[in-house]
Amino acid sequence: MTDNERFGVENSYLGQTTRKAKVKNGIYFNRKTRKAFLSKAQLKSLINYAQQRHIELIPEIDIPGHDKGILKLLSYTKSGRRLKKQLVYRDGYNEFKLSKKGTLTLSKKILSEYLPLLPKGNHIGMGADEISLDNKTEENNFVKYINSIDSFVNQKGYKLTAWNDSFHKRTINRYHKNITVFYWSQNGQQSDSDDRKELIRLRTTLPQLVHHGFKVINCNFYYLYVINFPKMYTDPSRFHWKELLDKWNERIWDDNNTSDIYKGNQKIDSALCIWSEPHEKYSSSKVYQLSQEYLNEFLQHQD
After folding, report:
1. Could you identify which of 32, 94, 118, 261 might form a hypothetical disulfide with 122, taking C-beta atoms 3.0 to 4.6 angstroms apart as the criterion?
2. 70/56 Cα distance (integer angstroms)
3. Nearest Cα to 17, choosing from 33, 4, 5, 25?
């Protein structure tokens, strides 16, 4: 529902509501950011549509980092600007300070608006990716933060998902084990070799997470990411991806590394990640059409 650039769903606490919006062809636009967003009613209709087809739709709100969209919305009110001043981690990537209680309070307020839209027992996602956890203090602060979010969600009758970025080796025994982890990359796809080595040193592997009792979804970046770029949809690209997929199975989690696969007895689920990055060449219906072939191939591979 959100990414760094856009907070893409209605939220009363952040002041992005249908009442204040401009409506064009049934689409709501924030008059200040000029970006489109889903109303809560539209989100609820999508959840119901999925449920009728025995599919669980998991709304994901990216917190506590990768949050330029949230910071933008906060900047439009005096109280929001005060929060930004108190909570923003200036050296991070649009991040909130994990050491501040206000960050947890803000996160709960944002998430709480979507829980009533979900059937009891369903999941809600928090990003927990692309944040600065490079020392023991920050790691400990994050464990307290995500466990508090998980307890809050559980008490309301729901479950939590997060990405693997913030699950570190030093604190692996302290996270709540009922959090479902989407595992996309240990090295963060960093181009700098020193940055890659540091992330590999810090982050848990997929086998380690499974061994410690987590439910893990394999989203291996090397095989399972479809990104909305023109070159992705060329015939050679499709053919090459299908060839790659034939060499992959759910136990391969670290890019195309087959020497360190998961060797345990637990079943590993996987997910194809289709990222609809904005592109002037494609409408949403065109993206749906073009990406369908990738999805069909992935589903056949699963069988």
Report:
1. 118
2. 26
3. 33
Domain ranges of the chain: 22-218
The answer to whether 274 and 292 have CB atoms below 8 angstroms apart is: no
Q: Amino acid letter at 21? A: A
pLDDT at 283: 81
CATH topology of domain 22-218: TIM Barrel (3.20.20)
Residue with more model confidence, 4 or 74: 74
Its pTM stands at 0.95
Whether the ω angle into residue 64 lies within 30 degrees of 0, i.e. cis, is yes
CA count, 13 A, side-chain hemisphere, 258: 5
Measured distance CA(227)–CA(291) in Å, rounded: 9
Confidence (pLDDT) at 212: 98
The vertex-166 CA angle with 162 and 167, nearest 5°, equals: 85
End-to-end, the C-alpha distance of the chain in Å comes to 29
Across all residues in the chain, what is the average pLDDT? 95
Above 70 in pLDDT, residue 303? no
Q: Is the pLDDT of residue 241 over 70?
A: yes
Distances (CA, A) of 283 to 203, 233, 280, 288, 302: 37, 14, 8, 9, 29
CA distance 235 to 48: 36
The one-letter amino acid code at 101 reads K
Which residues face 88 on adjacent strands? 96
The DSSP bridge pattern shows strands 159-163 and 123-126 to be: parallel
Chain position carrying tokens 């050296």: 91
pLDDT, tens digit, for every residue of 22-34? 999 999 999 999 9
- The amino acid that residue 182 corresponds to is F
In this prediction, residue 198 carries a pLDDT of: 97
- Band of pLDDT at residue 290, cut at 50, 70 and 90: confident
